[in-house]
Write a structure and sequence with these properties.
The chain is mainly α. The protein is built from eight helices and no strands.
Length: 187
């Protein structure tokens, strides 16, 4: 759990930058969609190395602290699916930041409720093997978290398309200046 939050904390720079810059842009009567788009790009760039090498880093980290092998294996069994779908979780976090900066916390609440319920239901199926699903145990718990967080993007999508101020598909403009500003504010 601690290691997972260490991974998720790496995207907080992007979350904070998007949240603040979208709020400033909207408050000034401008669109914040370019900051949301920049945040989505950065979240992918940050998550890809973790997707590719995160498990090896965590294995090294755990072994360095003399963690028993069974604990290391169990932790990695849980984290493997999460690392595979990590870019989606990071993008969901950025979209969440955009809605927060816009002040649309009801959408965030509904998305969080959706993810929580979906995670619990999927956990029952994947951990214990209900309704013909394979009983995956710890790995099933990881898949439930990863899939539920990834599906939040699909939940957010219709709301995102309706919001002119943060819709990343409107007025698409990727500017290095926005990426750098986002990183600066996030840090």
């Amino acid at each position: 759990s601690t290691l997972l939050w260490l991974v998720y904390a790496s995207t907080e720079v992007v979350y904070t930058g998007v949240n603040v810059l979208v709020a400033q842009a909207v408050g000034a009567g401008r669109r914040g969609s370019n900051f949301l788009l920049s945040g989505l790009i950065l979240s992918i760039l940050i998550s890809l190395p973790m997707t590719l090498w995160g498990e090896e880093f965590l294995r090294f980290f755990l072994v360095s602290f003399s963690t028993p092998r069974k604990v290391v294996d169990t932790a990695l069994e849980y984290l493997h699916p999460i690392f595979i779908l990590l870019p989606f979780a990071f993008m969901t976090n950025v979209i969440n930041a955009g809605f927060n900066g816009l002040g649309k916390t009801r959408v965030i609440f509904l998305a969080t409720l959706f993810v929580s319920v979906f995670n619990v239901v999927l956990s029952l199926f994947l951990i214990y093997g209900f309704l013909g699903f394979p009983a995956l145990g710890v790995e099933g718990a990881g898949w439930a978290v990863a899939v539920a967080e990834s599906f939040a993007i699909f939940f957010y999508f219709p709301f995102l398309l309706k919001e002119k101020q943060i819709n990343p598909l409107r007025d698409v403009e990727i500017r290095l200046e926005n990426l750098l500003k986002l990183i600066k504010v996030g840090f």
